[in-house]
User: What shape does this take?
Amino acid sequence: MASTDTVVATKPKAKKLKPARKQVKAGDVVKTETVQTGKEYNIWYNKWAGGDREDSYSNKVKSQTRCNIKRDSGLTRANTTGNKYTCLFFARGCCPYGWECEYRHTLPDPNDTLPDSSKDCFARDKFADYRDDMGGVGSFNRQNRTLYVGRIKETGVGLETEEVVRRHFKEFGEIERDDSPSTWAVKVLQYRSVAFVTYKHETHAQFAKEAMACQSLDNDEILNVRWATEDPNPVSKVAEKRRLEDLGQEAIKARMDPGVVDAMRAVRALEDGDILDDEGNLVQPQSNEEDSDGPPDLKRRKVQEGRSTPPEEPSQPAGLLSADTLEGLKYFAQIRQRNGAFSEKPRTQPPPVPTGLNLADYGSDDED
Assistant: This one.
């Protein structure tokens, strides 16, 4: 007899994170100040105003560091203390603390709910409105998952540029899928050096915005990464609204007690006259003409009485009035006969109508 060997499929073990490495040493990054041509310092934008209106990125300097998720991710003190926020300098590739950092050195986990929804994944406060240049932290009034990427150097057709942009940005999160030819939510405006990247989660978009700011793709350019404005396409607006509604329903279901959900489902099934099995699933009844034609009240009565007694057939009408109406009239007629309601009362004749001038009863001796 040939022996049969059974192969047991084992799940691959999750790779354990090692302690985070120090991305830079103290003093390695030399901060260079750009030449400011303005005369007034704007504390909101943290720069001099008035001298860079023609091209605000002409004075930008390429970043000296860049985050490498595969090499730089690791455990920090935040994994012990329970801090769920990510290190901003880790995203920029210049954190000198490594495993001693008080913030996480990993990509933000979309399954982890941040303690405060008015802060981004780096624990920075959001604002009610976006800045005029769509930079900065962002707004808490709208969930934005799309980044505007400017100053791209195009070397080929649109699909080739999309592939280059996707290859550099996919490292920092999962990119959304769509019905475009490339099936990725990466749109390039050809001959305009502009691209739009849509992530599946907002926290990944926040991380990628800081990680790719002032970085380059394949042609040593300096990228201008900002938040994208709202898509004016009505189809996109409807799809985004439906997606937010689905997320809200899933969040509500996750927080509700399963016992309450089962009880509400049983009550609704009782109201509709449906039958549920032990697992709470709807049982499809056998197709009978009597069951299919009956109203919900009749179905509910069948469920409560165990289908023991057939429903009473409605009385057939006889002539203009139904049998129930005739029985009611007979009953009221008997009551009226019993109380003597049919005894005729003597009718009094109405007074005669006077004719003429109505002067017959007027005497001559009356003073009036």
User: Anything to note?
Assistant: The chain has a mean pLDDT of 79. The two ends are 144 Å apart (CA to CA). The CA atoms of residues 88 and 244 lie 27 Å apart. Residues 234-255 form the longest helix (22 residues).
